[in-house]
């Protein structure tokens, strides 16, 4: 079976063509994969800044109330350009105070390249990273607080 990438740049994403049909990969899929891969690196938060921390916390609260999974959007601070066979990724992140930024950004870059290439078949040409904030651990919403809010929301749902 022969496969060939076809498609158009921009919002339509990429298409993998074979003799039995085609598979289209939307830009938003590549964007989510890149965002999730970046978040897999310790002490990295997508989007950066206090606003992103608040958004992430509010997303967790919303998830607890609505029953959806995850806290916050994995696409915050992520933009992609997807061509026929390649993708370029731009990320905006915040790091926790004390991490070595060059090593951390390289770990993020490696994670994003590995995940996007292995899951989509696209070759990642570049991952540009902007570190726009350094956060102290107490600035980040505490996991225990998030779990407590989620638990309270679940209890309220059961009562209703």
TrEMBL record:
Skewed-composition ranges (Basic and acidic residues): 151-160
Pfam families, alphabetized: Asp23
Top-rank lineage group of the source organism: Bacteria
Compositional bias per record (Polar residues), positions renumbered to this chain: 14-25
InterPro entries given in the database record: Asp23
Chain positions covered by the region annotation Disordered: 1-25, 137-160
Compositionally biased spans, kind Low complexity: 1-13
Family the UniProt entry places it in: Belongs to the asp23 family.
Official protein name in the record: Alkaline shock protein 23
Species in which this protein is naturally found: uncultured Rubrobacteraceae bacterium
Lineage: Bacteria, Bacillati, Actinomycetota, Rubrobacteria, Rubrobacterales
């Amino acid at each position: 079976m022969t496969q060939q990438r076809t498609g158009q740049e921009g919002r339509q994403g990429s298409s993998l063509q074979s003799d039995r049909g085609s598979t289209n990969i939307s830009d938003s899929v590549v964007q989510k994969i890149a965002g999730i891969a970046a978040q897999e690196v310790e002490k990295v938060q997508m989007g950066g800044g206090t606003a992103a921390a608040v958004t992430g916390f509010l997303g967790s609260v919303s998830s607890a109330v609505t029953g959806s999974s995850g806290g916050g959007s994995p696409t915050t601070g992520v933009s992609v350009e997807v061509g026929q066979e390649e993708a370029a990724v731009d990320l905006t992140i915040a790091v926790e105070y004390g991490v070595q930024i060059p090593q951390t950004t390289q770990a993020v870059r490696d994670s994003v390249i590995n995940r996007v290439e292995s899951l989509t078949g696209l070759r990642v040409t570049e991952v540009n990273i902007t570190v726009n904030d350094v956060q102290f651990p107490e600035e980040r919403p505490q996991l225990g607080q998030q779990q407590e809010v989620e638990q309270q929301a679940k209890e309220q749902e059961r009562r209703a």
